[in-house]
Each structure stands twice: as structure tokens, then as C-alpha cells.
Amino acid sequence: MQLNTLIIQMPLLSSAIQRADMFPYGSLSGDMILAEGDDETSRVLSLPRPVYFYDSLFSQLYVATNGIVSAQDLPMEKQYVDDGFPTDFPVVAPFLADIDTSGGRGQIYYRVTETPSVLNRVEVHRGFPDAKFTPTHVVVATWENVAAYEEPTRTSGPSNKFNTFQAVIGYDEVDSYVLFLYPEGGLNFFGTRPKESYNVEIELPARVGFSRGEVTYLIFSRTEGPHYSVTSDEQSVKNLYQVGNTGIPGVWLFHTGNRYSFDNIVPASVGGLLATPPTRGHGLSLDTTTPDYPEFEEYPDNTFDPDSQDEEDDYPLTGGDAEFQPAPASDHSEAPQPASPDAPSSPSEDVPHGSQPSNRQYAPPNPPEQCSQNAFCSDYATGYCCHCRPGFYGNGRHCLPEGAPQRVSGKVSGTVTVGSTPVDLNNIDLHAYIVVGDGRAYTAISEVPEPVGWALMPVAPIGELFGWLFALELPNSQAGFKITGAEFTRRAEVIFYPGNQRLSIIQTGRGLDDHNHLTVDTVLSGSVPFLPPGAEVTMDPFKETYQYYPSVATSTSVREYSVVSADRGSESFSFQLKQNITYRDCRHDSSTTALETLQITMERVFVMYVKEERILRYAITNKISPPTGPELVNPCYAGTHDCDTTAQCIPQEGQAFRCQCATGYRGDGRNCYDIDECAEGLSTCGAHAQCMNLPGSHRCQCQSGFEFGFDGNDTMCVFALECVEERGPAGVFHHLWLLHFFPGPSIFSDVDECSSSPCHVDARCINGLGSFQCQCQAGFYGDGFYCSQQEDEPERPKTHCEHYRDSVQTTSPEGYPITGAYVPQCDANGQYIPLQCHGSSGHCWCVDSNGQERVGTRTAPGTTPIDCDKPERVKTQCEHHRDSVQTTSPEGYPIVGAYVPQCDANGQYRSLQCHGSTGHCWCVDTRGQERAGTRTPPGTATKDCDRPERPKTHCEHHRDSVETTGPEGYPIVGAYVPQCDANGQYRSLQCHGSSGHCWCVDSRGQERAGTRTPPGTAPKDCETANEPERPKTQCEQHRDSVQTTSPEGYPLFGAFVPQCDPNGQYSAQQCHSSTGHCWCVDGRGEERAGTRTTAGIPPVNCLPSAAPPTVRPLPRPDVTPPTNADITLLYAQGQKIGALPLNGTRLDATRAKTLLTLHGSIVVGIAYDCRENRVYWTDLSARTINRASMAPGAEPEILINTNLVSPEGLAVDVKRRLIFWVDSNPDMIESANLDGSGRRTLFDTDLVNPRAIIVVSSSGTLFWTDWNREAPKIESSSVDGQNRRVVVSDGVGLPNALTFDSSSGQVCWADAGTKRLECVSPDGSGRRVIHSSLNYPFSMVYYRNHFYYTDWRRDGVIVVSKESSQFTDEYLPDQRSHLYGIAIATSQCLSGEISVLLFTF
After folding, report:
1. CA 461 – CA 865 distance, rounded (Å)
2. Residue 1359: its H or E element
3. Mean per-residue pLDDT for 1074-1100?
4. Where is the EGF-like domain positioned along the sequence (predicted)?
5. At 382, which helix (H) or strand (E)?
């Protein structure tokens, strides 16, 4: 029985499909077979034609052991197989679990085919009746009798449970659809045990669904894209073969991609046997406890992290996280889509008693004001008002669940003039994500052109609107959304000083979409000051007062901001903001106390523009309160609570608070889960309505033939009243109302349409039975709906295309046609038709809006022309360069004299370039840079640019390595470019093109001392030595000995080059150009102790006579550390190590910075050696142990890179000069000397999942945790591996973090399973609980009666006081992603507290 017959006949089918009903597979069907193993990935499966997945095009696929098909090569399974859905790479997942085919336990087959018999089986029209889809290619992947991975130590023998399932991807040039097939008896296990994850689940159900993978979004560069989950728990996995969304048990069909526009996966929706449709919908990951926020990887200096938003949330800028996107297109559904659940049906004001809206007679009456489905309607003396039900907030017309994060999407348009250059913004995307629980608002605008992107960085008020709408509320205040709801207009004017540029901002709230996400459109117009590329903008925290009046809120403020750029240094500017926000209020409720004045406090403001991705980002933390009153320190008001992001923080007495899950969510407040009202029978939907679950809520959708009633109730559906409109000849319309009460004949009633004046003012209306007619009066002409006297309109000016077309001479002076000339074709509006053809030669090609030929689109006569409506590829640097040259005047006439680079068919620079006006020709390299010595004058033979050129010299390497143009091909000013002679050697006289300084150099390009001259003075004669050159000083020898270029001539970065004064002596102040550190030196160049400052800190005044301060060792362990000893927390965050200074015991977020950027790494364990000022870390990705000196110019050093599988926890014994680490895959604990030598294994038995490790140097004792799920424990031994024993094993869950309290002599741990922070003496006595409700601790250190731990729920550093057992501080890095290990670094070794280094994973 074939699948297409299955779908056609599915109402007759009552049991699951059989294996024989699956698509043919196996060697006889031409399948390739995936190698056996636990973590295998197929060779690349190249597709004959690319496939659209979401709205992206992919030309290759990979099939993996673990039940997935991916569009990119997969990472190691431990990086995804045990993690919750979605993945950070594109995935089609029919059954994502830890599968193992080793030892002949199953086979995995895959192929791509164009066989008609297979294509014909991909039938989608039953599930998508409006789809116009005929597949051209099909990918079939089959997992047959595959088994789950099982650890040999946990089972006595292999399991006899095997699964069989299939994924079928059918696609054409526009769409893609996916079938998941689960035959009867095909699923016998429904999940697998995590083996190398940090998930607290013991058994992880298989994940089924789709993930777009990481995309670019919001403040922190990279984040999860849209995703769609089918399963949420073990029961939903079992349902895969018991039900289906096609009406056939075991058959699931999805629309997965479209060439033009695609928000998220659309499941088929057919009645029949579908028992449990996936109502959690369209991208809401069902197996996450909290809506996550984006994981962002990179931006300059890696200091700042929206993105879909799980804790690594990641909706894209244009596609979007499923939770963040509009509802799927309604053309895939049989029933019409209802309006937004909270959108009013009419924009009219509140309707008082006795008034009726003005309506045309043939239209049904408009309802009174429609309240949200989460509100109730109150009848007052003068009219009606809507009020949100308990658990929701808003203005009654729009209500949202309290405590849940909110998302905003919209478009930005308008024209912004930067300096004197106007830049158009054409409906570019805006997305925002607001964590209501602590007032953080993240805003991102994508595809912002570079000049305006830099210039708009100070305009944080664009994103401040969302902070005001959803600010953290302090007592006696309310955020803006409770007043405005989702429909409002905000008008703001920004006046910049000192230039008096003015920018207008108009932001319009359009309501809530089908996912209860706010839609806001933004229009910008006016001018802004120019900011140099690469500039950084900082804004201090500030407070702003809002005045409230009926239907409007206003504010005025003055802001200051700083701009730091390479050319101008640091500059201060300001702007004035005036704004008003208008909205519809309900004045019938006289009991409501009107607001007068509130104050919003913006505690953190971060702005940046990412040039490479053209994304403008704002991040602001907002609190709203009355304008006066004492500072409140309750964690709910400070934003330091640990409630789930879908929970409310309810303040109680003092610093106490309570976490309560938001309406529509369930849990303990610290971990909340969405309630599926539809599945649990909690919906308010009436008869003939279908319940659709939403995050924290639900909506009702009427079945076909029904619609919501006119009483404003959007939960009850009534028979549809349908207006049938037929247009006849000469403006005759027929309007009939069909009232579908019965399946028999419809009831007809005539409507007098003329009473509503439907015709033009210069026409008359004639009513008839079931129709009316409009006729223009005498002297007027038209169809009756529009009549005119046919006056001639003035002719519009000619367009560029029409000028060009009319300038071509097509006839001779005698009037005969001239053949061979190309005449451009223009459309009715005078614009170039995208496809142009030469009437004589028959060639055709595509052009852009300027009439320029699009590279690679020309076709020969007799061949099929290119589809010019397909989006063209991204322009290359050559094409940017070429197209930026102005070759025509505003009137369309050619401009001569400009050099236009010539690009080949692939958009690359042609190796030979010639100037069309001067006749000069020359050779260029791949970057378009002229090759020295190749220029020829007009009339002479050109060089053969394809002959191999001589190897580049040191000077040429240096010159060509300087970046002189941006990615778009525009020049970059300010860079020094060395000058080489015809032989490639350094010219003896070098001059800086921007600064005007000149100097002499030697043959290596090194400046000769004493030869530099300022601009405007005569340069030195570098060819003649008028006086002998003095011998080099020690400083000059030191400076010139530093290797700054590689053997090939490329610059080397990161090395410290000393600075010498004009006499060759060491400059008193030395600075490292890479790290930004500065310090003072003596006459020998030796650093003077206590003078070093870090980047961003003003350097000390280095006076040659100043004696260096003396810091002596502390004599006693309990002596307070000296005040000049800097204490810094080092934390690992993915591809970087960050530094977070302490001010006493408080976290100093203002001085936080990135210490090391380690691209491609996953830094986990981290430790610090105070004697040699080195940081040590484990790299899970590279499987290495590394270190780096924190001295200027130091480079990372690999210590160990062999026989490591999963290096995690790490510790340094400062006293014995040893390192210790755990490897959680082979389950070992090892040690080595600090340089990596002397490696030895301490323990390799009786370990299951070793995690954290610390060393107490004073006693020579090791402590470590074992994450053995069957019997977790904490153990200890001596540093040489003797005296091993268990410290604690009772009441331990998932001991993740470990540290040592030197003041009490106790070992302390943070448990991700029990959520407790506990301490115990090394002998097992004196156990006590410090804190009983942590979030998700990962790593921990102890310092001065405080515990500092990294938290995976908050993605930050949390501080707990040992004395009060309370959370006292919190640091959330601007880059939002998981933090791993944490360590303490100090400028000198401290006694007692810091001598014990305890840095764990």
C-alpha cells in the first residue's frame, strides 16, 4: 500500500502504518549505509538542487547516528545529544536521542532521489489543500532496528529494544515538506540516559521536531533561531506511532521551508484519527523549563551578549524564534484564521450606553468594545470598561500573563541624514525581548546600513519604549503596558548638541499577534551627528520623570553620552529628548485613581553596532517607581532574585520574597512550566471552537463555517454570516447575505445599498433587488465609483531608463532603421524591466534598478533566460567598488573621467585593470590592489597579469596586509601604508598619508632614530648620511629585537614593543598596545612595582624620581589584605575568560572586561597561579590543558594535548607547583607539573562522573566530587594519591561546584540536584546548610565570608553571604550565555584566604 493512497484513504484507516508502507529503503533502493558506531556522521550528501529549510537555502545534508538530518557537519555528540531542544545547528529530528549501532545493532540508510515512483508518494495536499507543490527531489533517511546507547558498567548485557523510523524530505525550487513515519511496533524505547551532559534529568525523552539553528540576533551576536517541537515527555514520544497529524497513526507531515517568506514550521491539520495534536506550537520548545534567552558568542572584545531565546534563546532577525514570530501563514489552513486573541475588533473608542456605531446597511453591526479573552467587561453609569482578570495585566483590551517574558517585533522605516548624507531605511526588522522579572529590555534592529548604524548608537530612546512598557515595578507604580495596552502612538524628538541635529521617532503599537507578542512599527526621520566607524558609545545610568494625563503620558530629559574613537579619542555630547505617548483610556470607571507622576530609572544602558552583521543593539535595565522615596533593597525591586523568568517575584518583609509562577505556568516559582490549557481541559472555548495553546495562555479558533459572535466574546462561535458580493457590468454590484443556519437553501434578503451612499459624489445610485448601480452624471466619465471630467494630467519627468531609451539612435537621418543598437526596455512607470534582451543579438540578461547588468545572468540566444525575480547573490568587494562609482548625472547622462573597476563573471577583480579615460592599464591582486611595476601608459603593450609574479618582499607583505577598505569596498582612512620601491624594498623615506609625519627607515622598515619630522616641515634626506648614525641604545636594541612580523612578512600581534624617547632611552611610561595595560619603568626598562593599570583605567604619573612602592609579604594568615592588592574573579564563558574585579566583597561590574578571547574553544575549568601570575584552563573543545601569563604580550601555551577526552575540573597547588584535573569520560583524576611534565594518574577506579576538584595547599589535600547518579559523593585524598576516603555521600544529588572555606576549615559544595549550598569538615562532621534554594550552580569559590558561584539559570555570577545565608549581589554579563569555571586572581599571593586555590568545573 503506497503512502499517497494512505493519505487519500486515511478516514478508513484505524491502525498505524506497517513497515511495508514506508518508503522503499536499503541497498536495493540505492541507499548509502552509515558506518556503525555511537556517534557517526555521513559523508556530505550533495543535493542536485538546493533545498529551502525555513527561509534559508542549503545544498548539502548530513545524516547522523542519533536520529537527525542536518544541513551542516555535526559537532561531537556530547555537545548536543543530551541537551534540550533546539540545537544550535540546522536539524530535522525524527528521533533525536543517544543511538548506538555498534556491534551490528541496526542500520541507517540514506539517499537523494528523483525517481518518479518515489516523488509521486510525497502527497501533501490532504494536509495542505492550498499548496501548489510537486516535488522535484526527495531525500529518504531510514533508521532500522537501531538501539539506544548503554554504558557497559550499567547493564549486564545489550538491550533487546530496537527502533525503526523514517524521515522523508520532499522539495522543489520553492517549498520543502517533511514526513516522519513511525510504523507499528517501530518504537520500543522512548528516550536515552544522558552520559556526558549537565542536564539534571535521569532519562531524557527523545526530541522530535525541527530547529533552524543559531542565527544572528539582538544584543549578543549569535542566538537560537526558530524551532518547533513535537514531543515534550515520554508519553508524547509514545504517541508518535499511535496518532499523527495527517489522520493516519504514525504519519506526521510538516511544511518546513519556503523561498520567499517562512516564519516557522507549519504542521498538517487534518481531522480523523489525530488524538493529540501538538498544540504547544510553532516553536515553543516543550522540554525547557524557562523561555531561554539568546546565546551570543562574539562581538568586539566579547564583552556583551537578544537573538531565540531559550536561555540561549535565539530568534533570528528576519525569521525569528517561533515563540517570537507571527502566526504561520493562513493559506495552509482550511479554516480562516481569527484575529489576534487580544486585538480589539474595532479601533473605535469606548461605546457609551445608547450610542450605536455608524454602519453601512449591508454590513453586520459592529460590536461594542471587545475585551481581551483574559479580561472581564464592567458596566458603569456612562459606559463599559474592560479589566484584566487576576493573574493578567494590561488595559483590559489587551492582557498578558503576569511575570512572563515579553517579545516585540516590527519594522523600522524612514530617512535619516547622517552628516549631509540621507540614508533610507526600508522596513528593516526590529525585535525586542524583555525579562519582566528584572526589567531587562533588549532591542535589535537588523540590516542597518553602516553610516546610520554607527550614528544611531546614541539613540537609545528607540529601545527605551519597551523598557517603559514592561519596567520592573516598585511599590505604588505601574509599567506603561498597564495603561496603554498594545495600541498606542509614541512621538519623540531628539535634539543633539552641539550640532542641533533633530531626529523624529514615531512608534506605533499595532496590537498583539497570534502568539501574544506585541507588534510595534517605528518611523525615523531627521538628522543625526556623524560618528566615526568603530566608535564606542557609553551612556551613564539616569532617571526620567513621566507626567500622566488623560490618554497621554509625556516626559522631557537631557542625556549625556561619551564617544570614544581611534581618531578623536574620548568626546562628550548630549541630547534632549521630548516625547509623548498617546493611547485610549477608559474614563467610565470613576473609581480608578489617575496617575500623575512616575519616575523610570535606567540602571544599565548598553549600545553597540556590529558592522559585520549590520545590527544595531540596545540593552537597558528599567525600574519604575514614584519620584521620591527611600531606596528599596528587596531582591524583587533590585532585580537580584532567583525566580524563574516566567515567574513573579512577590516582595515580603525585609529582604524576603516569594516566587510565584506566572499565570498559565505551573511550578515552584524557581522552575516554571507552561500549562497546556487545551490538553488539560482548562480552556474557555465554547462549542464549534478549537483550542490553540500559547505560552502562558491559549486562544480559540472557530471551525469552518463559524465565526465569533458580534457581542465581543472571542470564545463562542456562531454560524457564519457571509456577504456575497458580485460585480456586474457598468458599476452594478449585487450584495446578498447568506445566513448558514441549515444545510438547506440559504435565506436571502435585499439590502438598500444606496442608503449608505456607495457611489462617487458626481454619480447617482440606483437600488435594485439584491443589487445597486452607480452611474456618472452628465459631463463626467467613469464607472460610477469614480467619476472625472478627464482633464489632462501634467506629464511626469522622464526616468533614467526613459532617458537612456530615448537617447539611443534607432533611425538614420534618412529615416531608415538602424540595426544592432541595444534599446533598454522600461515598464509603465519608467523603471528598468528586470529582464533585458538585445533585439539584434538575442542575448538576455538581468539588471538592477539602475539598469546595471547583474553578473552571471547573461544567456545566449536560443537559451532560456534567467529568472530575474530570484534574489541575487551578495555583492563582492569588486562589485561594491564598481557600483559605488558615480557614472551618470542625476539627469541620467554619462559622467566621463571616473575609474570603474572591471569584475569577472564571479564578481572578482579582473587581473588586468584599465582606465577608460586615461588609457593606463595595470595588474591587481585579488583585493584589487595594484601590483607594483605593472602600470603601462596608453598606447603601450599591457603586462601579462596571468604570469606568476615574483614572491612578495617584506615591504610588500607589510603594505598589502594593511586594511585600506571596508567589507563594502569603501576606503578606510587613518591607516599607515608603507611605501615600497619598484623592487619591493622599503623606500628610505616613509610618510604617513593621514598625519603628515615623515621619517627614514632601514632596509627592514625600522624607523631610524632622530629622523622623524612633523607635518609642514622639510623631511630628512634619507639617502645621504650627513652624520654617522649613533649606536643603538639598550631600549632601541630591545625594541628592534622584538619580532613583529612572521617569516612571510605578515604582522604579528600581541607582542610587547618597548617605547623609547628621542634619545633612545626607555620612556618613563610603557603601554602594551594589545592589552591596554600601562606601567612605569626605571632607566633599565624594569617595571616599577605597584604602577600597573589595566585597560580603561587612567595610568599613573610616571615621574623618573618617584620611588616604587614596597609591598611586603603578610606575616600572618588572618591579617587583612593590603588595600592596594587587586582581587579579581576570573570566569569562563564559552570562548572567552572574563575578569570581574571585587570592591571589597562587592562585584564591581563597571570594571568587568574580557581577559582572553579563545576562538573555537569551550573553556570549562579555570585556575590561577598567584606566584607566576598565570591563568590555567581546560578546553573541552580542543581537549587540551592550557595556560597564559597575564603579563603584557604573553601568548596562550598548550601544556597537555594528548590522551584527554573530556577535561573539566582543574586546580593549582601553588605550594608544590602542581596541577590536578579530572577527565569525566575515562573517569580519571591526573596530575602534572605546572609546565605539563611529570604527568601521572592518581585515580582511575571507582569513579563514574568526576566533576569538580580543589586542592588545599596548606594541608596537601585533594577534594573532588563524583556525579555518579546511582551514588553521588565527595571524596578526598592526599596530593600524592594516598589516603583516599569518602567525605560525604548522604543527601547529595548533583554536586557541581566545590570550594574550601579557609576561615572554618570546611569543604563546601553547591548541588544542582538538591539546590543546596552546604559545608562539612574534612572528617565528615559539622555539616550545615548555607543556602537551601539555589538555581543551577556550576562552579564556586570562597572569599571573605562570601561564596561566589556561576549560575546556569541566571547566566551570571551570584554572591551568597555565609553569615546571612542571603543572596547579596549578582553580575549578569552583557553577553548572555552559560558561565563555567570561576577562580580568584590577585596581584600578589595572599595568606589564608587565597593561598588555597580551588577552581572547579
Report:
1. 49
2. strand 1356-1361
3. 86
4. 632-673, 674-718, 750-788
5. none
Show the beta-strand stretches assigned E in 676-824.
Answer: 689-694, 697-702, 706-708, 717-719, 721-727, 732-739, 763-768, 771-776, 781-782, 787-788
DSSP-assigned letter for residue 1225: T
Least confident of 589-603, 849-863, 1058-1072: 589-603
3-class DSSP assignment, residue 686: coil
Could you tell me the three cell numbers for 257? 521551508
Cell 499523527 belongs to: 244
Helix (H) or strand (E) holding 961: helix 954-961
Which pLDDT value is given to residue 1171?
87
The two beta strands, 1328-1331 and 1317-1320, are: antiparallel
Which residues have C-beta within 8 Å of that of residue 427, sequence separation ≥ 6? 411, 412, 413
Of residues 498 and 303, more confidently modeled = 498
**How many contiguous H segments (helices) and E segments (strands) does the chain have?**
11, 82
pLDDT of residue 948: 67
Nearest to 505 by CA among 407, 396, 585, 618: 618
Cross-sheet strand order for the sheet of 227-229: 45-53, 56-64, 68-70, 91-96, 207-211, 227-229
Euclidean distance between CA atoms 1019 and 999, whole angstroms: 7
Contacts of 791 (CB under 8 A, 6+ apart): none
Q: Which position has the grid cell 584552563?
A: 1177
Pick the closest to residue 42 from 126, 135, 140 (CA basis): 140
**Residue for grid cell 484507516:** 13
At 385, the amino acid letter reads: C
Nearest to 245 by CA among 206, 210, 277, 203: 277
Grid coordinates of 517: 507578542
10 DSSP assignment: G
* Separation of alpha carbons 226 and 215, rounded Å: 9
Residue labelled with grid coordinates 561619551: 562
User: 1339 near 1345, Cβ under 8 Å?
Assistant: no
Residue 228, CB half-sphere, CA atoms under 13 Å: how many? 24
The cell numbers describing 560, all together, are: 549625556
Q: Give the separation between CA 624 and CA 350, rounded to whole angstroms.
A: 28
Q: How far is CA 678 from the centre of its chain?
A: 31
Q: Average pLDDT, stretch 34-58?
A: 90
Return the SS3 of 1041: helix
Residue type, 205: P
Each residue's pLDDT tens digit, 209-248: 999 887 765 444 456 688 899 988 888 898 898 888 888 8
C-alpha cell at 785: 465609483
β-bridge mates for residue 181, sequence order: 166, 251
- Cell numbers for 319: 525569521
HSE on the CB side for 845, CA within 13 Å?
16
Strand 569-583 relative to strand 597-610, pairing: unpaired
Write down the pLDDT at residue 628: 66
Other beta carbons less than 10 A from residue 910's beta carbon: 15
Tell me if residue 464 falls in helix, strand or coil. helix
Matching residue, cell 536539524 = 91
Residue found by looking up cell 571589597 in the block = 1144
CA-CA distance, 564 to 532, in Å (whole number)?
Answer: 9
Please answer whether residues 1352 and 311 qualify as being in contact, where contact means their C-beta atoms are separated by less than 8 angstroms.
yes
pTM of the model: 0.34
How far is the C-alpha of 504 from the C-alpha of 501, rounded, in Å? 10
- The neighbour count for residue 471, using CB atoms within 10 Å, is 28
509 — pLDDT class (breaks 50, 70, 90): very high
The values of phi and psi at residue 425, to 5°, are -110, 115
* β-bridge mates for residue 845, sequence order: 836
Phi, psi (5° rounding) for residue 333?
Answer: -120, 145
Q: Please give the DSSP secondary-structure letter assigned to residue 1051.
A: B
Give the tens place of pLDDT for each residue, 466-501.
999 999 888 888 899 998 999 999 999 999 988 889
Please state, rounded to an integer, the average pLDDT across all residues of the chain: 79
